[in-house]
Design goal:
- This protein has 314 residues and is of the alpha/beta class.
- A hairpin with a 7-residue loop joins strand 8 and strand 9.
- It has 13 helices and 13 strands.
- The structure holds adenosine-5'-diphosphate and magnesium ion.
- Adenosine-5'-diphosphate (ADP) binds next to helix 7, helix 8 and strand 12.
C-alpha cells in the first residue's frame, strides 16, 4: 500500500490527488523531491512545498545512523555470482544486495546477458554463489528470452522449468509504466509473498530517453528518473536485495578526441548506481568490463565471454 500522504501537513485531498497523478505516491518520493517541482505540481507556494517535504522526511527518519549500526546492516549483504570469477572480483564478490549495480555499453556488449545470467544464478544456494531467491525482471526493450534463460539454467545444472517459475517478468511500455511496475514489485515485497532477491531493469533509461526527447522536458525526466531510482534503492536496502540495471550509451561529439561514448541518465544515474561497469565489445564473443565507479573497489577491467552458460571467464 502506498503511504497515506494526506497525513502530511498542507496536503488536503485535492493536493494529494494532484501529487498522486504525477507519481508522488509515498513519503519517499516526496522526501526526495525539490520544493520547486513539488510546489508546481501541487499548486502550492514553495514555502508550503518545503514544509511538506520536511514532514515527509520526518516520517522516514531520514538522517544519521551510527557507523556501527551501518556495519551491522552491511553484514547481511549477499553476493550473486555473475558467472565469471574475474567479474565477481572486479565487483568485490559479485553483484551485491543493498546496492544498485549498473552496466552500460553499446548494443550487443552483454548487458542483457548479464541480467539473464543473474536471474539464474541468484536462484542457486548461497554456497554456490546465489541467494536462493526469486527475480523480478522489468523488460523495456523486449529482449527477455525465456529460452535463453532455460539454456543458461540447463548449462548450470539447474532445472529450467523451476528456474523459469521463479522469474516474474513484465514488459514496460513506457517510462510511467516502468515506474508503475517498480511499485508493483514493491507491493509484492511488502506483502512478503515472494522471496525476491534480485530486481532487473533492462533498460533503465531507454523509455525515459524516448518519452522525454525534447530539451524542455529534461528536468521532468530527471526528476522522474530520480524517483524511480530512489524506489529501487529503497527496496534494495529494505529487503536486502540486489538491483541490476542496464543503461544505454550515447555518442557525444568531442572536437579533440572525436565522438566518445557516454552513459545516459546524467549525474542522477551516476550518483544512484553504487557499482558502475562499462562493457566494451572485443573480439568475437569476448567483452571487456570496466569498473568505473565504486565506493569500495579500485577501478579496473576484466575480460569475459558470452557462451551457452551466459557470462563466463575467458
Ligand atoms: P546488450 O548489451 O545490447 O544488452 P546482449 O546482452 O543482448 O547485448 O548481448 C548480445 C550478445 O550475446 C550477442 O553478441 C550474442 O552473440 C550473445 N549471445 C546471445 N545468446 C547467446 C548464446 N546462446 N550463446 C552465446 N552467446 C550468446
Ligand atoms: Mg540489451
Amino acid at each position: 500500500m502506498p503511504d497515506d500522504i494526506e497525513k502530511l501537513p498542507g496536503v488536503g485531498p485535492k493536493t494529494a490527488e494532484k501529487l498522486r497523478e504525477v507519481g508522488f505516491i509515498d513519503f519517499m518520493s516526496i522526501a526526495v523531491a525539490s520544493a520547486g517541482e513539488l510546489g508546481a505540481t501541487a499548486d502550492v507556494s514553495e514555502a508550503t512545498a518545503n514544509k511538506i517535504i520536511q514532514a515527509a522526511r520526518d516520517q522516514l527518519e531520514m538522517g544519521f545512523e551510527t557507523a556501527e549500526k551501518l556495519l551491522e546492516k552491511r553484514k547481511d549483504v549477499g553476493y550473486i555470482t555473475t558467472g565469471s570469477e574475474q567479474m565477481n572480483k572486479l565487483l568485490g564478490r559479485g553483484v551485491q544486495t543493498q546496492a544498485i549495480t549498473e552496466a552500460h555499453g553499446q548494443f550487443g556488449s552483454g548487458k542483457t546477458q548479464l541480467g539473464l545470467t543473474l536471474s539464474v544464478t541468484v536462484q542457486k544456494p548461497v554456497d554456490e554463489g546465489g541467494l536462493g531467491g526469486k527475480v523480478a525482471f522489468i523488460d523495456t526493450e523486449n529482449t527477455f528470452r525465456p529460452e535463453r534463460v532455460a539454456q543458461i539454467a540447463r548449462e548450470l545444472d539447474m532445472n529450467p522449468e523451476e528456474v523459469l517459475k521463479n522469474i516474474f517478468v513484465a514488459r514496460a511500455f513506457n517510462s510511467d509504466h516502468q515506474m508503475f511496475l517498480a511499485e508493483q514489485v514493491n507491493n509484492l515485497l511488502k506483502d512478503q509473498k515472494e522471496n525476491i532477491r534480485l530486481i532487473v531493469v533492462d533498460s533503465m533509461t531507454g523509455h525515459f530517453r524516448s518519452d522525454y526527447a525534447g530539451r524542455g522536458t529534461l528536468s521532468v525526466r530527471q526528476q522522474k528518473l530520480n524517483r524511480h531510482l530512489h524506489l529501487l534503492q529503497k527496496m534494495a536496502d529494505q529487503y536486502n536485495l540486489a538491483v541490476y540495471i542496464t543503461n544505454q550509451v550515447m555518442a557525444t561529439p568531442d572536437a579533440f578526441f572525436g565522438p566518445t561514448m557516454k552513459a545516459a541518465g546524467g549525474h542522477i544515474l551516476a550518483h544512484a548506481a553504487t557499482y558502475r561497469m562499462f562493457f566494451i565489445k572485443s573480439k568475437a564473443n569476448k567483452k571487456i568490463a570496466r569498473l568505473i565507479d565504486s565506493p569500495d573497489m579500485p577501478e579496473g577491467e576484466v575480460l569475459f565471454q558470452l557462451t551457452e552458460k551466459g557470462i563466463e571467464d575467458v
